[in-house]
Design brief:
Elements (H helix, E strand, L loop, with lengths): L28 H8 L5 E4 L2 H6 L9 E4 L20 H12 L6 E5 L4 E4 L11 E7 L23 H6 L3 H20 L6 E7 L2 E2 L1 E3 L27 E6 L2 H4 L22 E4 L5 E2 L6 E3 L14 H10 L7 H6 L1
Parallel strand pairs: 1-2, 3-5, 5-6, 9-10
Antiparallel strand pairs: 3-4, 6-12, 7-11, 8-9
Helix pairs in contact: 3-5
Cofactor: Zn(2+); Mg(2+)
Keywords: Magnesium, Metal-binding, Zinc
Pfam families: Alk_phosphatase (PF00245)
Length: 327
Amino acid sequence: MGGGRRQFLPTYETDIEGIRGKRTDGEDLIKHWQHHHSHHRSAYVQNRIQLLETDTERGELDYLLGLFATKHLPYHLDADEQQIPTLTEMVSKAMDILERNDDGYFLFVEAQPVFVTPVRHRALNYCPYSLLFRDFCSRHLYRIGPWTTENHPTLGGRIDHGHHYTQPIRAFDETVEFAKAIEMARSRTSQDNTLIVVTADHSHTMTMSGYSSRKNDILGVNNGQRADDDLPYATISYANGPGYDRNVQREARLDLNRVDMRDKSFAFPSTVPLGLETHGGDDVAVFASGPWAHLFSGTYEQHFIPHAMAYAACIGPGRTACTTDQS
């Protein structure tokens, strides 16, 4: 489930929005999927209403494909609620289907897209249910997204994009939606048999600075001091990005008291001019709960994460919790 419908269609076909596909191999992957599952209990949905009307709770559906936008799903703040499901709704529908697998499952949630991979197990003393929530760009808690909106039009969600355009109001709202989906997944699973991992693959150059008072608007100006040019400065700023022109490149720095920083499209101050803000080099956090969650502590390389999850879920040919128990 997610966006990127044009990536499934050949260049000579158009989707329901009248947009041509991007595939140069002539393949219509949507029709391929429908043909492959023609003898299965399956459904292809293209908007929120269709998704919510799909009966996934009574065991009447085994396969679900949802493509809700031609390109990226819109930001939650901009989404048409008739057309675009929330991340929580997509995760809930995926879990409805996967929870019927008594041998366990693996669910990969990448902010807005939801990738579902059932994993079958036969062992007993292991973690049969695994959920990986990965955002593509976490600095402090969890964030998400690809590099550019054109080069990778189906990856990730929109937290990453909000930061690339130095629009933290959009990025923060997407983070809240991400947190809601995680909260829902935790509420309907047990820590006794479900490992949930939340992480990211990179940070951004966003920073929070200054000595603002408690309860000061995080999306406003620092109310604890002014800069040496006697102008206010934003609590949130970026090392680089499109906010440079409006905030730095002028005879005098932009007076933030004279603009609407609550405008969701407002580009927050950037030090270096770039069309898109870059990723950062910070360590990103990994949060885990459930069986073997203690493996996800300390500092380690990113590629350790799938190995630790495979160990907990008894997946793959390497050493796992199951082989350890047997020995």
